[in-house]
Amino acid sequence: MPEPTPAARPTLEAVATRAGVSRATVSRVVNGGAGVRQPLVDKVRRAVEELGYIPNHAARTLVTRRNGAVAVIIAEPEFRIFSDPFFEQQVRGISRELTVHDSQLVLLWVEGPGEYDRIARYLGGGHVDGALAFSVHNDDQLPSVIHRTRVPVVFGGRPGWAGGRGEPAVPYVDADNRGGAREAVRHLVALGRSRIAHIAGPRDQASALDRLDGYRDAVTPHTGPALVAQGGFTVESGARAMAELLERRPDLDAVFAGNDLMASGALRVLRERGLRVPEDVALVGFDDMASVAERTDPPLTTVRQDIEGMGRLMVRLLMRTIGVNAGPGAAGAAPGSVITPTELVRRASA
Length: 350
Prior knowledge:
Order of helices and strands: HHHHEHHEHEHEEHEHEHEHEHEHEE
Structural class: alpha/beta
Distance between the termini: 74 Å
Strand content: 15-25%
Strand order of the largest sheet: 2-1-3-4-5-11
Radius of gyration: 25 Å
Shape: elongated
Largest sheet: 6 strands, parallel
Number of strands: 12
Helix content: 40-55%
């Protein structure tokens, strides 16, 4: 028995016939063009819905000069991306905002320098309208790889890499990492803590360095030399750093960790050593990721940054960069950078 022949896809001409308008009018409506009266727009949209018409992507690209896709590049290996809730929240915000702009998200990650050629070929192949890149390390060649493809880009995080520092043409979205860290440490000082340690994030990321600077801003005038151990924004690195700090300074009475994951690792070690939180050691994190901060015992006092909101802002900046209206008055606006505020969220750990 022969297989049934699939029904033919509705064409632009079929939509025009159903709506009683010209093919050119349908094309303008479907591709977001201007100059069509609202009654005709409504008729075309009804016909599209009734027929189940799906625009031809290649033809639409020729008309709009857009692919309707954005590359999201995370400069971390796969295991970090799928184990750290920060990336989940950032990508969620990006995805939701791209949906508003009828664009698809194409996720790319960087296992190492060997990935640069693959990413350059993809971006340079005209598959996407722009790129969003975050978690870029200071010694990373990824920014220069992206710029060579001439694809519009917005970065998540203040540029710390060579050639990016102080460059106004590099649009980015970041949180007030230094100010948030200062507020966290000042809170610990206000609680009467005088031996305050810091578990720092990676030395090659601007956010970690900014939080370290904020810690030093606030702690040095009150407690003397800084007490810092190196972490890597992971639970296990926080646990190792906490053990090191206790070896160096058993009488410490407070810890500011550079993110919530490291704080949760520190909390585990403190409990294993029989130290009470916050009675013996007060603990503050950074990020306010609900899946971490609200589930520790005790719940974690932390610095909140709007991770999902920053993802949305990255998309809006990119849409301005590629000349798409990202909101009232945004069309044609020069791309810039945004520093979002942070907020100390007080829970039971400090």
